[in-house]
Amino acid sequence: MSRALMVRSIPLHINTRDAWRDAGAMFARRDRTTQEIINISTGRPIINLGSSSFEYEPAWNSAPVVSCLLSPKASRLVFDEMMPDNGRSVPAWYWLKGPGRGGANKEKIFVNTLNELNELHRRAEWIGGDTQLHIDGTEYRAITVMNNVVQVSKRIGEDDDRNYEWIGTRNAPRGLIPAAKWAATKFIEKTIIGWDLIKDDATGKVHILEGNACPGVNVATARRILDAVGEY
Question: What values do phi and psi take at 76, rounded to 5?
C-alpha cells in the first residue's frame, strides 16, 4: 500500500510527480470528488498539493492554507514582519507580485518617485497582489512539515531561473531555519510548504519571499517529507 494519497488541481512537472511516486505516494485522479478521495484513502494521509478547492480539513495543506499562499496580498497580512519592505524607499527596484503559482505573475520594476510607488501600490491592490522591495542576496528553498524543516536548497542562476542545489539543514545559513519555522507556525493546520527565502547581502537578515504548497521535490526530499508526515 502507498504511504500517502496525493491530491492536486493542476498537472505536476513530471520529475516532481515521479519523485513522489518513487517515494511511495499514490495520486488520486483529478476528476474524483472529495468524498471519493476520502473513501479510497483508507486511513492513509491525504496530502493536498496546491488545490484551493479541496476542502477536507484533516488533509495536509487545507484549502484555506493553499488560498493564503496563492495570494500575495493574504501572505503579506500573515508574514509581513519577515517579508521585504512593501514600499517606502525610492529610487529602487521593486517586484510586483500577482496571484498565481510558481512566480508566473511577477514583474520587476524600477521606481523613481513616490508617485510612481503609489501607482505601483494601486496596481497591486487592483490585482490582489503585493509589492516587495528588491533585495540583493542569496535565495534558498526550505521545506517544512508543520514547523520541522526537512530540507534546504540554495538557488542558483538568475531571477528567472528555478534551479536549486541541495545544502541540507545542517549547512543552512544562520537565521534561515528559524525564519522557516516561524513562518510555518503561522498556520494551525497540518502543512507541507516550500518557503522561498532570501538572505540580504547587506544586512544578513533573512526575509520570506513566498510559500508554495506544491514545492518541487526529488525522491530523497519526498521520502523525508513522507517520513515526517508519518510521525503525526
Answer: -60, -40
Instruction: Specify the DSSP class assigned to residue 169.
Output: S
46-49 sheet: strands from edge to edge: 25-27, 4-8, 46-49
Question: Domain 69-74+136-229 adopts which CATH fold?
Answer: D-amino Acid Aminotransferase; Chain A, domain 1 (3.30.470)
Domain boundaries, the chain: 69-74+136-229, 85-133
What is the overall mean pLDDT for the chain?
Answer: 94
DSSP 8-state code for residue 202: T
**pLDDT tens digits, one per residue of 8-64:** 988 899 999 999 999 999 999 999 999 999 999 999 999 999 999 999 989 999 999
Burial of 134 (0-12, 13-18, 19+ CB in 10 A): middle
Name which of 63, 41, 42, 60 is nearest 52 in CA terms.
63
3-state class of 210 per DSSP? strand
Q: Is 193 helix (H, G, I), strand (E, B) or coil?
A: strand
Following DSSP, what letter does each residue of 79-115 receive, concatenated?
HGGGSPP-S--SSEEEEEE-SSSTT-SEEEEEE-SHH
Reading the block at residue 170, the C-alpha cell is 545542517
